[in-house]
């Protein structure tokens, strides 16, 4: 029996087994012969169809055949070996194989840009202009809501990630809930009144936990599904998807550590002491591919990018990347800073491939530090910041070493493949919905919550 079939295949007789409720639509699957949209959805979701806000699948979905180069990654206990090979796509237009337990994703209401870094990408006028263009309105007519929960509402982080929008005339407002609670009514008004929602980089786990506690998660899901433009880099990209490869376990990203560091910088006193960082000495710091100076390297030290002005550390901090859940609006497992090494000394792309072995049913999307993935309804494209270096070195995009996006998946033999994402295409060929029962939660998340507990109202 095939490797993935043993682990992930759907155990049903007619391929129409009702999945657990999830935000992204399972109705994107091909309809059984003779079944209408309505009858299919009623059979798929059972009672309560009227209460669900799932878009109907499009009629006469046209698929375009294409071929792409891919890299095979054979994982062994002690190392990862990579060898280039040419693998043709299947007869369908899907960029990676779409197994029986996954379905092509279709939702023409979703519009957003998801970058591989927070401040480094979101402060770019190119990225800001691309986000604004998704609204089809003039900048001066737009309102942007900045949500900095992942960076604990630190003002400097907000300035860095919204300055490009403000310079173009967009009205910028912030919703600060990392360190204080707001009423549901106040949060609802803030979300309803904006045209663009920008989520900061930072600690993804803290942000999503905090939103769920306050009820903000549902407001963000409704806003995205109703067509508001959503965006963000690093943690601000992970949060919109099923989950991501996160540095939320890095002590440098913990709330008290960040706030204490900020208070010392501003001279406003200090918060309670953060636990000591566990360090191990090294002779040098590996900046990794795409890092050509200390400023760029330190921008990837945490998902928040707020340490860009600091000198590169000469020590490695002992922490591990973990899979954290997002809001589940879009399917996929996101890895930001794909081409970078952070303070634990591990190249994220290599560690991400190891993570894929533990979460083998999911499709992984690796976004280079200076790249972004744009989703505009049924179409996608890859954005690369001009003049920046990335992981693409085979002239697939026309230039060597430019930032790009990679698609990772596990085949039936347990081999992880890393495939360069095309510059543009159909979202249904890129993203694949996965029922919640096939998503494996990371057991280390509980420990991370203890080390960096989300703020509760009683606190």
What's the quick description here?
The protein has helices spanning 3-8, 37-45, 119-122, 125-135, 155-167, 184-192, 204-214, 216-225, 235-238, 255-266, 294-299, 348-358, 427-430, 445-451; strands at 70-75, 80-85, 103-104, 111-115, 143-147, 171-174, 196-199, 229-233, 241-246, 279-281, 315-317, 322-325, 330-335, 364-367, 371-376, 379-384, 405-410, 416-420, 424-426, 432-433. It is α/β, with parallel strands linked by helices and 459 residues long.
Question: Can you describe what's shown?
Answer:
- By secondary structure, the protein is an alpha/beta fold.
- It has a domain of 281 residues: 3-Layer(aba) Sandwich (Rossmann fold), CATH 3.40.50.
- It has 14 helices and 20 strands.
- The strands form four sheets. It has an eight-stranded mixed β-sheet, with helices on both faces.
- Strand 5, helix 5 and strand 6 form a beta-alpha-beta unit.
- Helix 6 runs parallel beside helix 8.
- The longest helix has 13 residues.
- About 28% of the residues have low confidence.
Task: Record keyword descriptors for this entry.
single chain; 459 residues; alpha/beta; Rossmann fold; 8-stranded mixed beta sheet; 20 strands
Topology at a glance:
Elements: H1 3-8, H2 37-45, E1 70-75, E2 80-85, E3 103-104, E4 111-115, H3 119-122, H4 125-135, E5 143-147, H5 155-167, E6 171-174, H6 184-192, E7 196-199, H7 204-214, H8 216-225, E8 229-233, H9 235-238, E9 241-246, H10 255-266, E10 279-281, H11 294-299, E11 315-317, E12 322-325, E13 330-335, H12 348-358, E14 364-367, E15 371-376, E16 379-384, E17 405-410, E18 416-420, E19 424-426, H13 427-430, E20 432-433, H14 445-451
Parallel strand pairs: 4-8, 5-6, 5-7, 7-8, 9-13, 13-14
Antiparallel strand pairs: 1-2, 1-18, 3-20, 4-15, 9-12, 10-11, 14-17, 15-16, 16-19, 17-18
Helix pairs in contact: 6-8
């Amino acid at each position: 029996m095939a490797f993935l079939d043993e682990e992930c295949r759907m155990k049903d007789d007619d391929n129409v087994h009702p999945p657990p409720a999830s935000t992204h639509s399972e109705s994107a699957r091909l309809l059984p012969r003779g079944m209408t949209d309505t009858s299919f959805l009623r059979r798929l979701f059972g009672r309560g169809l009227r209460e669900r806000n799932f878009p109907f699948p499009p009629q006469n979905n046209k698929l375009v055949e294409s071929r792409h180069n891919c890299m095979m990654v054979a994982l062994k206990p002690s190392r990862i070996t990579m060898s280039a090979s040419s693998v043709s796509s299947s007869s369908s237009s899907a960029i990676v194989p779409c197994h029986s337990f996954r379905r092509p994703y279709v939702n023409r209401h979703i519009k957003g840009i998801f970058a591989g870094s927070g401040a480094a990408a979101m402060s770019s006028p190119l990225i800001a202009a691309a986000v604004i263009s998704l609204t089809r309105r003039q900048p001066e007519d737009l309102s942007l809501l900045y949500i900095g929960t992942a960076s604990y509402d630190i003002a400097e982080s907000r300035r860095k990630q919204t300055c490009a929008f403000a310079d173009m005339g967009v009205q910028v407002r912030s919703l600060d809930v990392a360190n204080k609670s707001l009423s549901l009514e106040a949060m609802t008004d803030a979300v309803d009144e904006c045209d663009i929602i920008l989520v900061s980089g930072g600690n993804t786990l803290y942000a999503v936990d905090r939103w769920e506690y306050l009820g903000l998660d549902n407001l963000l899901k409704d806003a995205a599904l109703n067509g508001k433009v959503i965006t963000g880099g690093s943690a601000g990209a992970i949060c919109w998807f099923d989950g991501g490869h996160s540095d939320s376990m890095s002590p440098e990203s913990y709330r008290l550590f960040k706030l204490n560091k900020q208070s010392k910088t501003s001279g406003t006193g200090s918060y309670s002491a953060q636990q000591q960082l566990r360090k191990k000495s090294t002779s040098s710091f590996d900046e990794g591919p795409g890092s050509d100076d200390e400023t760029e390297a330190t921008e990837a030290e945490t998902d928040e990018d707020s340490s860009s002005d600091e000198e590169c550390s000469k020590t490695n901090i002992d922490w591990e990347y973990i899979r954290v859940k997002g809001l589940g609006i879009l399917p996929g497992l996101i890895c930001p800073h794909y081409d970078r090494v952070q303070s634990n000394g591990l190249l994220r792309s290599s560690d991400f491939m190891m993570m894929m072995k533990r979460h083998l049913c999911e499709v992984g999307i690796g976004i280079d530090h200076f790249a972004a993935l744009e989703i505009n309804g049924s179409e996608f494209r890859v954005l690369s910041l001009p003049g920046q270096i990335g992981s693409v070195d085979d002239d697939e995009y026309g230039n060597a070493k430019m930032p790009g996006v990679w698609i990772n998946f596990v085949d039936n033999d347990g081999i992880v493949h890393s495939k360069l994402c095309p510059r543009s295409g159909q979202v249904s060929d890129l993203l694949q919905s996965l029922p919640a029962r096939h998503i494996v939660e990371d057991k280390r998340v509980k420990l991370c919550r203890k080390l960096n507990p989300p703020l509760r109202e009683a606190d």
